[in-house]
Amino acid sequence: MTLTVASLRMWTASNYVAVHEYFTSNAVDNWKYSQFFRSLGDQDVGQAEEIWRDSLTKLQQRPETPRYVHAACQHHLDGVKALEGGLELLALPEDHSDHTGTGGATTGSTVSKRPIVLSGPSGAGKSTLLKRLFADYPDRFGFSVSHTTRRPRDQEQDGVHYNFVDLEMFQKGIREKEFVEWAKFSDNHYGTTFQAIRSVNDQGKICILDIDMQGVKQVKETNLNPYYISIQPPSIEELEVRLRGRGSEMEDAIQKRLAAAQEELDYAKEEGVYDEIIINGDFETAYAQLKAFIDKGE
Predict the structure, then answer these.
(1) H-helix or E-strand containing 141?
(2) Strand partners, 276
(3) How far apart are CA 176 and CA 167, in angstroms?
């Protein structure tokens, strides 16, 4: 089989979290990490494979490295070499359950299914759609729990709806490049970490990210390669009715959300930004469209 730039890029995009974890969490030189992606940009497949192989060799020379890391990284290299342009990444071997360390953690770093980014204005109905989707398919999808510095609302649980952290901890995560995306809105910070995505993938589920427009733009700068779905209200007027119906925000906050919503809706009109746009006027219709797109994507 022939290794091509397109196939290697496709593999890297499908396995971005694995590549990131391999080059960073396992103490491989960060310079190699940047050089690997630079090789893809320069269309130098040979150099990219050489960097991967050299880093793998050094990693395997460390006796303290868990056995499952060796197996996982070797599998990734085998996957690269076995690719042919246009083919999907080869699935994990049947005996992947053997690739575990003393703690029993699975390799889990492989992202064999594309994540899904669900985006839309606050009040568009994303949370309600996701709640139904997870209830119908608990073993198929997983939610990337975002971090935020805002206070929990009534009924919100830490670690379930959000990871609620203070500003100091959030800023530490930014400095240490733990976030796939993050943004600040109404004096509060929101963000998705690489670890949040890994946690979903470790369960063998498709990871779903619920993020705003700024988050979408940041994710597009990575190699995560998800499907992008925009959830929209029928109109700005309807969105305002929904936001006021919550009864949880002051007038100033509502106006800020409406302004941000208009900007996000305008952004969604740009060609190629989203793979699917769903107008959530009738819940059942919107949910059926969401399911149909996801089924088609898989």
Answers:
(1) strand 141-143
(2) 229
(3) 14
Alpha-carbon distances, residue 189 vs 20, 116, 121 (angstroms): 24, 22, 16
pLDDT tens-digit map of 93-118: 333 333 222 222 222 333 347 899 99
Name the amino acid, one letter, at 99: H
Is there a single domain that holds both residue 128 and residue 202?
yes
Half-sphere exposure of 282 (CA within 13 A, CB side): 4
Residue 21: exposure state from Cβ atoms within 10 A (0-12, 13-18, ≥19)? buried
Strand ranges, E, within 6-66: none
Residues 164, 65, single domain; the answer is no
In a domain, 101, yes or no: no
Identify which of 129, 140, 126, 285 has the alpha carbon closest to the alpha carbon of residue 207: 140
Residue range of the domain that includes 40? 5-95
190 is written with which tokens? 């929101």
Of the two residues 176 and 87, the one the predictor is more confident about is 176
Check if the beta carbon of residue 171 is closer than 8 Å to that of residue 177: no
Those residues whose C-beta lies under 8 Å from the C-beta of residue 265, and which sit 6 or more positions away, are: 121, 232, 236
The number of folded domains in the chain is: 2
Q: What pLDDT was estimated at residue 9?
A: 54
Measured between its terminal Cα atoms, the distance across the chain in Å is 25
172 in the same domain as 83? no
- The model's pTM is 0.58
Residue whose structure tokens are 């469209």: 289
Contacts with 227 (C-beta within 8 Å, 6 or more apart), sequence order: 114, 115, 116, 117, 275, 276, 293, 294, 297
